[in-house]
Specification:
Layout: H1 10-21, E1 26-31, E2 34-38, H2 39-49, E3 54-58, E4 61-69, H3 73-82, E5 87-92, E6 105-111, E7 130-135, E8 153-159, E9 164-170, H4 172-182, E10 186-189, E11 205-208, H5 216-223, H6 230-233, H7 237-253, E12 266-268, H8 279-284, H9 299-303, H10 309-320, H11 326-341, H12 343-353, H13 359-367, H14 373-392, H15 399-407, H16 412-421, H17 442-469, E13 475-479, E14 483-489, E15 501-505, E16 509-513, H18 515-547, H19 550-576, E17 582-583, E18 589-593, H20 598-601, E19 608-611, E20 617-621, H21 628-644, E21 652-655, E22 660-664, H22 677-691, E23 696-701, H23 709-727, E24 730-734, H24 743-746, E25 750-760, E26 773-782, H25 790-796, H26 801-827, E27 843-845, E28 851-853, H27 873-880, H28 894-904, H29 913-928
Parallel strand pairs: 1-5, 7-10, 9-12, 10-11, 17-21, 20-24, 20-25, 22-23, 23-24
Antiparallel strand pairs: 1-2, 2-4, 3-4, 5-6, 7-8, 8-9, 13-14, 14-16, 15-16, 18-19, 18-21, 25-26, 27-28
């Protein structure tokens, strides 16, 4: 098409011009009742939307063509958006019947993941954010440089469907965390801002814009359409540049008609005023997305009892940004407590809120002149609920509920206007009449009366003409093509009066009109057209008058959303037995806490508490599958819920106000990013150790796995000491390194907790006993665990019996070797030097392949001597000598020799159960071969 640009027909030339103006989008071009695309764009649309690829032929050539029906465009647009395409909608902007020549078309909307406004494409329950990420200008952007004292980066967000616009600034790492917390559907990047979408923890579209729109002068010019003095609202230039660039792009996508009228407030917020949650923490705690294959329970899904779209989005926002201000937390808790204590009022509030439409998005559509008559009636229904809500909140005591009651603006003037103007059940189309009520406009009533009088005359014409002509089968009808007619069947044509004029010939009849019928038809059609036109003008006038109250509508929407979220917290507390936490209390203490999600998915859930009176570092041991990870996560979720304003699943809770929650619980590798599982874990650990404070909550699970046991144990111990000595954060550290339980004796603010098990069969005090049946009690007790029961867990998981039994043999051998070594150490045999090993800084040797540090010095990363032995060297030596006939026996060769050599390198005391099983399977395979 580009090659033939000068030869194209007017329509294709118009299409090409629009494509040139929107090179980053697929242009869908209205042609009648379809949106069409041509050439390569048509091939893309056909493939992605699974529609037929056709072609258009004219004098200049043949062009591929594909179209989607306008009436059902949403599903096709969704497919294009899911395939990461941006779509420019080119509508006919003049009436085809009135146009002379080519109908004028223009791009009225650019649809991208972050700028969707169509209800069919929006998620009712969640906000869809468009974001702009900007780095501090060092002189490259137009309009001057930012102040060197400005924050390094700024993030602005806009929900295009509601008009919520917010901006914050801060250090680059904190802005990155905020970006991941909000997970916008699209990110517009400013100049010198590197953003790799593949490195983010969520899916998004990264959009580059002309750097000029992020210049300070250009940004202030854009902002002036929303706030009178941009510098007075946002004093940091980097913030103004972010918001200006963001709003410039939003205006472009909505038709480039200037400022968006429903974006009435640009709000700045401080990252320090909410509990920080990075993407790792949100994923680990499963706040909004389950980590289970195929989906599973989430926190928001568990506590979501909202009855309106407004409330659902506000609930999610509160969980994304829990409070850190004690007074604001207390106000929410007071409101929840009152609604909990007044069930009749609570249920009345919820019943009324269930009738509320999505007022935020309604207000946006109205102000953008996209609302139809049904939208206005939905608004009227919502406003009618407000007086009932205020009555339900009579005599409330809590400050938050009292403030909400005062904020419930009834907007009686708006409701009265809609009541008087719009019929109760209007049609969807606003240009074809039937929208405006009788009595609203005198001129419209007169036109309607003329139309009605004409139709009544026509309706009585059939009876009069039958009497006049004597033709009983005569009928009067109407078609859009031929207008009104008098129909006479062929056998009666000889009785047709002379004043009848033939209009249409049918197979068995003729259609006629009379001069009077023609005149009445013109009057009726003229009156009908004028009435439809007048109705449309009146509707637009009413819509404009309602749009003038957008800010009042948004204030009401905010109050309704908060009320729904608070009522939801109270409902959850009533139904699930949540209690009010005592906030701002240290140390953290929870009595009989429960995991809010897990307790709903299991028939029986064992509550467990935690009390940090003994110190701020809890070392948690116990078998796999006993519930350590669930336990740690439930502590974090209880704290998060409390700071969001909810009551918590526990018998009682005394909680400090946290500034951040860190999690190092589970990880996976990042092959594309070149990171192994261990590297990912170390990266997460690095962030924690650098950023955590004494006011943070830290969850650490199995730190140090994925490398050699000696290295892993050293990292785990050093990490625990650093958190204890330097950070001071409230910490739960789950581990299978039982050596770490000694830290409770070495560190004054560390203590042990373990998950208990019930053992049946074998020696109950010998974790290596044959056929020991283990039952996990999921109950936390004081002190360290005696074993990890890795072999028993493997058996429960279905590992073949041959592997399980072989593993038990190795464990018994290691335990025997350890006991022998311990006896030698106690008698002094095999230890060189007087009092060897008693000094924490000295080492003891027992054989050529065995060397370990007692590790009692907290500053030494080496570990204390294990009571199970470091390696299988002694055990292998027994196989070679005693078990194989003593010193005179021949040394094993072949496969047996290879296996024994491999066993020499196994440090069983520091090997995780999974590593042990993998090793055993490999050795068994080698023996089988």
């Amino acid at each position: 098409m580009l090659d033939r640009a000068e030869e194209l027909t007017p329509m294709l030339s118009q299409y090409l011009d629009l494509c040139r103006a929107h090179p980053d989008a697929i242009v869908l071009f209205q042609v009648g009742d379809f949106y069409e695309a041509f050439c390569e764009a048509a091939e893309t649309v056909a493939r992605v939307c699974e529609v037929t690829l056709t072609q258009r032929e004219d004098s200049t050539g043949t062009y591929p063509m594909a179209g989607i029906p306008i009436d059902n465009a949403a599903s096709y647009l969704e497919a294009l958006l899911d395939a990461d395409f941006r779509v420019a909608i080119a509508d006919q902007v003049e009436d085809a019947e009135e146009a002379t020549g080519l109908v004028d078309r223009a791009v009225t909307n650019v649809v991208s993941p972050g700028t969707v406004v169509d209800d069919d494409l929006l998620d009712r329950a969640s906000a869809t954010y468009l974001a702009a990420l900007v780095a501090r200008d060092s002189g490259s952007a137009e309009g001057g440089t930012d102040d060197p004292d400005d924050p390094p980066a700024a993030l602005a967000t806009l929900d295009v469907s509601t008009g919520e616009c917010r901006v914050t600034a801060g250090p680059t790492d904190r802005i990155r965390t905020e970006l991941e917390r909000l997970a916008p559907a699209e990110v517009v990047v400013g100049p010198d801002t590197d953003l790799d979408a593949s490195a983010l923890g969520f899916e998004t579209m990264v959009t580059e814009r002309d750097p000029a729109v992020f210049g300070l002068d250009a940004a202030d010019a854009t902002l002036s359409g929303y706030v009178a003095e941009p510098a007075a609202v946002l004093d940091a230039p980097v913030e103004r540049r972010a918001v200006g660039g963001l709003l410039s792009y939003a205006e472009y996508t909505q038709g480039d008609d200037g400022a968006l009228p429903y974006v009435s407030r640009v709000q700045r917020y401080d990252l320090r005023r909410s509990l920080r949650l990075d993407a790792t923490a949100m994923r680990s705690l499963e706040l909004f997305e389950s980590r289970q294959p195929g989906g599973g329970g989430t926190l928001v899904g568990t506590v979501d009892r909202t009855v309106s779209a407004l409330g659902r989005r506000r609930l999610e926002a509160w969980l994304r940004r829990p409070l850190v201000d004690a007074e604001r937390i207390r106000r929410r808790h007071d409101a929840v407590a009152e609604l909990l204590d007044r069930p009749i009022a609570r249920e009345a509030v919820r019943e009324h809120l269930s009738k509320v439409y999505d007022l935020e998005r309604l207000a946006a559509r109205i102000s953008q002149e996209r609302a139809d008559a049904r939208d206005l009636r939905s608004l009227r229904t919502t406003l009618a609920v407000v007086p009932e809500l205020k009555t339900a909140l009579d005599d409330v005591d809590s400050a938050a509920l009292a403030d909400l009651r005062d904020a419930l603006d009834e907007l009686a003037d708006v409701r009265d206007l809609i009541d008087r103007a719009i019929v109760p059940d209007p049609p969807q189309e606003i240009t074809e009449g039937g929208v405006i009520r009788d009595g609203f406009d005198d001129d419209l009533d007169e036109v309607r009366a003329a139309e009605r009088e004409g139709r009544e005359w026509v309706s009585s014409l059939e009876e009069r003409e039958r009497e006049r002509t004597g033709i009983d089968s005569l009928e009067v009808g109407y078609t859009q093509v031929h207008g009104y007619y008098i129909e006479v069947t062929n056998p009666n044509l000889d009785r047709v009066p002379d004043d009848y004029t033939r209009r249409q010939t049918l197979k068995n009849a003729e259609r006629f009109y009379t001069p009077e019928l023609k005149r009445r038809e013109e009057e009726i059609l003229s009156a009908s057209e004028r009435a439809d036109s007048m109705e449309y003008e009146l509707f637009c006038e009413v819509r404009s008058r309602v749009a003038a109250e957008t800010e009042r509508l948004q204030t009401l929407a905010d109050a309704l959303a908060r009320l729904d979220a608070l009522a939801t917290f109270a409902t959850v507390a009533a139904d699930a037995g949540y209690v009010r936490p005592e906030m701002g209390v240290e140390p953290l203490r929870i009595d009989a806490g429960r995991h809010p999600v897990v307790e709903r998915t299991q028939d029986e859930f064992v509550p467990n508490g935690i009390d940090f009176t003994e110190g701020h570092v809890a070392v948690i041991t116990g078998p796999n599958m006993s519930g350590k990870s669930t336990y740690m996560r439930q502590v974090a979720l209880i704290c998060l819920l409390a700071q969001a304003g909810s009551f918590v699943p526990a018998d009682a809770a005394e909680l400090p106000i946290l500034d951040r929650i860190f999690t190092r619980v589970g990880a996976s590798d990042d092959i594309a990013g070149g990171q192994s599982t261990f590297m990912r874990e170390m990266s997460e650990l690095t962030d924690i150790l650098h950023d955590a404070t004494a006011d943070s909550l830290v969850l650490l699970d199995e730190v140090g796995r994925g490398t050699s046991t000696a290295d892993g144990l050293a990292i785990a111990r050093a990490t625990t000491e650093f958190v204890h000595d330097e950070v001071g954060a409230t910490t739960l550290f789950a581990t299978h390194y039982h050596d770490l339980t000694d830290l409770a004796a070495d560190l004054p603010n560390a203590f042990n907790r373990h998950f208990t098990v019930s053992k049946q069969g074998g020696d109950p005090d010998a974790p290596d006993a044959d056929e020991t049946e283990v039952t996990f009690l999921h109950r936390v007790a004081e002190g360290p665990a005696s074993s990890s029961y890795g072999v028993e867990v493997a058996k429960l998981a279905g590992v073949p019996d041959r592997v399980v039994e072989r593993a038990r043999e190795y464990v018994r051998g290691a335990a025997g070797s350890a006991a022998s070594t311990a006896a030698e150490d106690a008698s002094g045999d095999g230890v060189e030097g007087e009092d060897a090993g008693s000094d924490p800084g000295e080492t003891a040797e027992s054989g050529p392949d065995r060397q370990e540090s007692t590790g009692s010095d907290p500053g030494t990363p080496a570990t204390p001597q294990s009571d199970r032995g470091d390696t299988l060297a002694a055990y292998v030596e027994g196989l070679e000598n005693g078990d194989r006939g003593g010193d005179e026996a021949a040394a094993p060769t072949g496969a047996d020799g290879d296996v024994i050599e491999a066993l020499r390198d196994v440090e069983i005391a520091r090997t995780t159960p999974l590593e042990a099983l993998n090793t055993l399977e490999d050795l068994q395979r080698r023996l089988d071969e």
